[in-house]
Specification:
alpha/beta; seven-stranded mixed barrel; about 20% strand; globular
Length: about 210
């Protein structure tokens, strides 16, 4: 009787340990760019030097988005850089490696460009010349791979270009969704606040887009 009781307790303990392990695995992600860290790290530790912006309109895109600031070119996203209800305008051409033709919409606002064709610094320069006050660059809409999607460290190309607006890199899946949604809704821009303070927001309560896995 005693050995039977011990055996039942042992089986119950094993089941309990397995359950705890399953819960732990389900909450921890292996992706370095998705915010599901439950290992005791603070929000500030996880986001490090990255910043966030939020889309206010259209409603279909009303989430908070994480971008990685350029490492060693342009100006930083600091206290003096703040956009409220600014337009996030896709550049024409989208790669922004030549003269941008929709500069009238870009002037005073934020450019949205895709990776490829030229360097990050040159894209930023062309957006600056078109009157943009900042630029967000994302993966090429037609080439990005969800399995390989990650935040890129944008560095200076050493061409000694005079760039003095802030630049940040956005995940390809978010960039593609924003661009395709704007096209589907026949909208030329989204309204955004940038940056927004997420330092003291609990990781589980960040208003991440649903296509970012938790």
């Amino acid at each position: 009787m005693l050995s039977t009781g011990i055996l039942k307790i042992t089986k119950s303990l094993r089941l309990f340990i397995c359950l705890l392990f399953f819960i732990f695995i389900s909450k921890v992600s292996s992706g370095a760019n998705d915010l599901h860290f439950y290992d005791g790290a603070s929000t500030a530790d996880v986001i490090a030097g990255d910043i966030f912006f939020e889309i206010l309109d259209p409603p279909e895109l009303r989430y908070s988005y994480r971008i990685r600031p350029a490492k060693d070119f342009g100006t930083p996203f600091n206290g003096s850089v703040h956009f409220e209800k600014a337009k996030l305008v896709p550049t024409v051409p989208l790669h922004s490696c030549s003269d941008i033709v929709n500069s009238d919409e870009l002037f005073g606002n934020i450019a949205l460009s895709e990776r490829g064709e030229c360097s990050f610094v040159f894209k930023t320069l062309k957006a600056q010349q078109a009157g943009a006050q900042a630029i967000i660059i994302t993966e090429s809409v037609d080439k990005w791979d969800d399995a390989l999607d990650h935040l890129i460290e944008m560095v200076d190309d050493k061409m000694d270009l005079d760039v003095n607006i802030p630049a940040g890199f956005l995940l390809g899946r978010s960039g593609a969704t924003i661009l395709r949604t704007l096209k589907r809704l026949h909208k030329r821009y989204a309204l955004v606040n940038l940056p927004i303070n997420m330092t003291h927001v609990h990781l589980g309560k960040m208003n991440q887009p649903p296509w970012i896995s938790w």
